[in-house]
Input
Amino acid sequence: MNTKEHIDIEIRLIQERMQHYFHRHWKLFLAEGIIFILLGFCAIVVPRFFSVAVVIFLGWLILFGGIVHISRALLFSGMPGFGLWLFIGILQAVLGYLFIVRPASGILTLTMLITLYFALEGIAKISLAFRMRPLPSWRMILFNGITGLAFALIVVIAWPETSQWLLGLFLGINMVFLGAALAKIGLHHKVSY
Output
């Protein structure tokens, strides 16, 4: 057996294990997806006039999302992609905490932090999507990762003129796409009882 065949076998084994987790815990993925969709819509609607209060609100949204990711990752620590799920959760929790404890340090600084978050999360999701391939919904995770990278690029290009309102809009869109991907995974793997 050559190296390529060995890698293909390993990838299929990881995909089978991941599929097992999706089938077994589809309700959790569906619930998490719904939560992210709701949080995303809140982030889109609320921060029209970006202020310190909105930065703190976004910090709580991101922190809660990070706690949900970390909790799920720790609950299913044997799941393939555990490290990436945990990384995304820790990244969200740390960024949310920074939004909450340092809002006065400036919206522009926080906007750059969220831009970094979009870029790192995008890279992590793209990597995770390729690990999930060809499982159903892997393209949704890939698309979500690509949109995260695109949002980071748009914020950098439009800096600083549009950072006041773009940040909340992009965060909300990003969360809605993630929620849709997770909900689709949950619904696809729904087990009839």
User: Anything to note?
Assistant: The CA atoms of residues 58 and 170 lie 12 Å apart. Residues 107-132 form the longest helix (26 residues).
